[in-house]
């Protein structure tokens, strides 16, 4: 529960935004509506000079007074009660869940098998492509050598 720190008895207007400033006073500013930002300076309404405690949240409550609450930080994780739930499941429900899990496992193994097959096919096609490119480059190199030899023979024949 919140504790009242300072009783101001503030009465609010709808068009104003009320807050606690850094000095611990109650201030107000006209609210920005529809993209029209309020560029006016805040007005200090009540000077309270509240000194804040670390880890507490200070706010203006419905009565127009200043209240504070200890902030909830972190929060413990809630433990799942898996064992108790398993014990409760008996008979038909337990069998149905077992069937579902076995089906899921079977689907997962099928998917793995498909992906491994696809990977193997990709590797095989890559190897074939490499071999064909190697063969083609070897053929080109041998053709170049043959043309050079022919050119040399012609050159030697012309000289003679």
Would you kindly provide a brief summary of this structure?
With 160 residues, the protein is an alpha+beta fold. It has 2 helices and 6 strands, in the order ββββββαα. The model has no long low-confidence stretch (mean pLDDT 82).
Write a structural description:
By secondary structure, the chain is of the alpha+beta class. It contains 2 helices and 6 strands. Among the domains are: 3-70, no CATH class; 100-134. The protein has a 3-stranded antiparallel beta sheet with strand order 1-6-5, with no helix packed on it. A 3-stranded antiparallel beta sheet has the order 2-3-4, with no helix packed on it. A hairpin with a 5-residue loop joins strand 2 and strand 3 (26-30). The longest helix has 68 residues, at 92-159. The mean pLDDT is 82.
Outline? elongated
Strand segment tally: 6
Query: What is the beta-strand fraction?
Result: 15-25%
**Uncertain stretches:** none
Task: Report mean pLDDT, rounded to a whole number.
Answer: 82
Helix count, DSSP H or I runs of 4 or more residues: 2
Structural class determined from secondary elements = alpha+beta
| Main sheet makeup | 3 strands, antiparallel
Q: Roughly how many Å apart are the termini?
A: 116 Å
Q: What is the radius of gyration?
A: 41 Å
Helical content band: 40-55%
Biggest β-sheet: strands ordered side by side in the sheet? 1-6-5
Keywords for this structure?
single chain, 160 residues, alpha+beta, three-stranded antiparallel β-sheet
């Amino acid at each position: 529960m919140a504790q009242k720190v300072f009783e101001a008895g503030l009465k609010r207007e709808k068009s104003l935004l009320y807050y606690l400033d850094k000095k611990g006073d109650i201030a107000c500013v006209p609210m920005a509506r529809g993209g029209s930002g309020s560029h006016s300076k805040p007005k200090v309404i009540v000077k309270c000079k509240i000194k804040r405690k670390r880890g507490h949240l200070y706010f203006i409550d419905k009565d127009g007074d200043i209240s504070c609450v200890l902030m909830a930080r972190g929060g413990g994780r809630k433990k799942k009660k898996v064992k108790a739930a398993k014990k409760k499941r008996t008979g038909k429900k337990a069998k149905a869940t077992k069937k579902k899990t076995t089906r899921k496992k079977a689907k997962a193994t099928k998917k793995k098998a498909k992906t491994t097959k696809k990977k193997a096919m990709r590797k095989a096609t890559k190897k074939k492509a490499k071999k064909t490119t190697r063969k083609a480059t070897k053929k080109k190199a041998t053709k170049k050598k043959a043309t050079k030899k022919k050119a040399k023979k012609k050159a030697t024949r012309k000289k003679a």
